[in-house]
Amino acid sequence: MQIKMYKNVARATAAVLFLMVTLYSCKPKRQVAITTDTPINGSINISVDESFKPVIDEQVKMYEASYPGTKINVHYKPEAECIKDLLNDSATSLIIVTRGLNKKEEKYFEDSLDFVPRYDKVATDAIAVVVNINSTDTIFTLQRLQDQLSGKLKGKQQIVFDGLSATSTVRFAIDSILKGKKFDTNVVRAAKNSKEVLNYVASDVNAIGLVGISWIGNPEDTAQANMLKKVKLAYVECGICPDSPYVKPSQLSILTHRYPLVRGLYYVLKENYTGLGAGFVDFMQFERGQLIFKRAYLGSAKIGFAIRDIKINKKLVK
Q: Rounded to an integer, what distance in angstroms lies between the CA atom of residue 286 and that of residue 278?
């Protein structure tokens, strides 16, 4: 009788365990992505703000040359489209844009992925004001730019952007120049991209272009040197300068904010493992990547920069 009771208890226990295992196996699980890339091998898709194509092309070229087993497929788009790719496209593991994530975006990733993508600033960029090589109108103040964009100043001049919506240059103009006000669409013109902005200004003496400095700030780049025979950089009023009241964008004026139209360049990495995206991000942040930004005449965000006064007691021999 006692043996029979033990058998019944054993059967009941086994039945309960079977039911628990069955219920657990039927419970929906969060899918875990199968990773096939590493920092030195594999292929990934990244979306990059079109404003930074020249310098990011160089970063990718150097990285792939250093690690022949890697392939970084870069898709250049307006900034807003890059953000959409990060939010909605599982194939996009990295974006490079002019801002990090906001609180709403962080919460979205926390809720949907159980982690927040890491992001940080890797360089400092400037919006260059570009005019035709034959133009004598090369001095700008922020107030003048605001008045022209809002339509308060009437004239033949048109300000040319790399698109009228969704681009980082347009967003910068609205946020930092217009302070949230609207454009006067009669005085602004949309080009297809930054290259087309430069071509338009090169063909029209009355045009004023706004482009990222990496498109026109590097005189050592053959294409940019040729374009600088057709267009030129304008001076913008410096609000903190005790000496020269107007400055051109340069590494010094960008890093010291003497040139007022500056913005950051950020990566946002949607990897929770050490993959190719993480490897490329680290490359951009460390010495070789930072030197590429420096060579493109952007401001470094990771390498220290300081200005020191020195006194030379000994006369230099001529």
A: 12
